[in-house]
Write a structure and sequence with these properties.
single chain; alpha+beta; five-stranded antiparallel β-sheet; 17 helices; about 10% strand
Length: about 475
């Protein structure tokens, strides 16, 4: 008897044991009674135990089919399994043999879930859209970083109002698909006109309740006061997994954009998705022993990256086109590990490094930021040195910057080796292991050094990857200069 069969049998036996009893009382943490849909409008009341058995079923199914983990989250699969159990359970006679019933239900559930998975993989492609802040200008031309597109919001609105629509949602919420185009785009002409007027500063009359009015509300909530929209095209994923992958992809792309500035962390104070915007500012109060209150404001409310002359900004975007292209390939490989790139090793390293770099820039605690910047550099090395990660990072910097370990690189006379050792050993390793005796010291200078080294390493590294399209091994990149 398989594990899945045992779980199904447990579900059936629990439901049979409670047959004829009143609906299960709600637990303290339940907002509604526990139910699963029967597929015909009816609901089956179930216990907490049945809910847990269904969740265990989904987990074991995912672990058995490991290929599912890159496309579906545990939440996605649990939703599909719950949806499949109801129709399967109403088909059986609970008074019949439990093992026979379990075999029938298991077969139906597996068939239903397999169909849902197959449909999602083949037809589940989605384009996610997030309001985002970028530049101090509102009319920088659209540009792509792989599957991620940045557009001024007016251009995005025009595009989505003309993309075409072959589907409608009825009053009952059911989706109906048509063989011919039924509308210019998913955003209606009325909604397009009203949102355009609102963005021009005009006041709008309240709309009557309708699905189109709801769409307008959701668009305004998602884009907010942002002047740009970040769109991400993802292949077939479960709903939860797709949203998560899109968010990570957007952050990787934002990290890439921030590389245009000498201090990316400053740029990322103004560059963000509306969906996860966290203004790094606030007012703090302090009081002196003799009763004086002091106020201090920190951070900035800036809703865009630091100002740059428009011509220079557009020139920088063009100059970083190779970097954007490589980052885009890495994001594509992240979304599709199998077919996203022909050089998965390097792309995986770049995606990891960009994510560590993004988190390092956004981190509030200097020491933890250093840990993340060190990790960004470390993953780029592919551990090219057998003597450890610190040596590998020094080799990375030496290869990228063309400077030796003994070269003095700071105004106070520290060599490159000493700087890396301080960042990696004192800042990174001891912080991770809780052995940093200088935890309370000021680490802002070391943080700035780590950020600068990580930024230049990323830019130069991606430049080399661009120049060597046949390479898929970090060692090959370093061998170019005899590293």
């Amino acid at each position: 008897m398989s594990d899945l069969h045992k779980l199904v049998k447990g579900v059936i036996e629990d439901i049979r044991n409670h047959q004829g009893h009143p609906p299960f009382p709600r637990d303290e943490d339940d907002h509604f009674p526990r139910t699963i849909g029967a597929g015909d409008g009816r609901q089956i009341h179930v216990s907490r135990k049945v809910d847990e058995l269904i969740t265990d079923f989904a987990y074991k199914m995912m672990k058995h089919e490991t290929s599912l983990e890159s496309r579906f989250s545990a939440k996605d699969l649990t939703h599909m399994v719950r949806k499949a159990f109801g129709p399967a359970l109403v088909k059986i006679d609970l008074d019949q043999d439990a093992d026979q019933n379990a075999a029938l239900v298991l077969s139906d559930v597996e068939e239903s879930v397999a169909k849902d998975i197959d449909w999602t993989l083949k037809n589940g492609k989605l384009e996610y859209a997030f309001g985002c802040t970028l530049f101090s200008y509102e009319d920088i031309a659209p540009f792509d970083i792989g599957p991620v597109c940045f557009e001024p919001r007016r251009i995005w609105l025009d595009r989505k109002a003309s993309d075409g629509r072959w589907v409608s949602v009825g009053p009952d919420g059911r989706i109906k698909r048509f063989p011919e185009k039924i509308a210019d785009g998913p955003i209606s002409k009325v909604t397009h006109r009203r949102i355009t007027q609102l963005w021009q500063g005009k006041k709008l009359k309240k709309r009557k309740a309708s699905s189109d009015a709801h769409d307008e509300k959701f668009i305004l909530e998602a884009i907010g006061d942002c002047q740009y929209v970040c769109s991400i095209s993802v292949p077939g994923f479960g709903v939860d997994a797709g949203r998560h992958k899109a968010m990570i992809s957007a952050r990787l792309a934002l990290a890439t954009v921030s590389l245009l500035w000498e201090t990316p962390s400053e740029a990322l104070k103004g560059i963000s998705l509306l969906a996860d915007r966290k203004h790094q500012y606030g007012t703090t109060l302090s009081f002196t022993p003799d009763g004086l209150m002091l106020a201090n404001r920190s951070g900035s409310k800036r809703l865009h990256a630091p100002w740059v002359n428009k011509d220079k900004l557009e020139e920088s975007i063009n100059r970083f086109s190779d970097c954007f292209a490589i980052s885009g390939e890495a994001i594509k490989a992240y979304l599709d590990p199998v077919d996203g790139s022909e050089r998965p090793v390097l792309m995986n390293a770049i995606a990891h490094a960009l994510l560590w770099f993004f988190e390092g820039c956004r981190e509030m605690v200097d020491q933890i930021s250093i840990v993340k910047f060190a990790a960004a550099m470390e993953v780029l090395t592919g551990r090219i040195s057998k003597k450890g990660s610190q040596k590998a990072i020094r080799s990375l910097i030496e290869s990228c910057f063309g400077i030796s370990e003994s070269k003095v690189i700071t105004r106070d006379g520290k060599t490159m080796k000493e700087v890396v050792e301080h960042i990696y050993k004192m800042g990174r390793t001891r912080m991770i292991h809780g052995e940093n005796e200088a935890l309370g010291n000021d680490w802002s200078i070391e943080r700035a050094s780590a950020e600068k080294l990580a930024r230049y390493s990323l830019v130069i590294y991606m430049g080399r990857v661009s120049e060597n399209p046949s390479f898929d091994n970090p060692k090959q990149l370093f061998q170019q200069d005899g590293g």
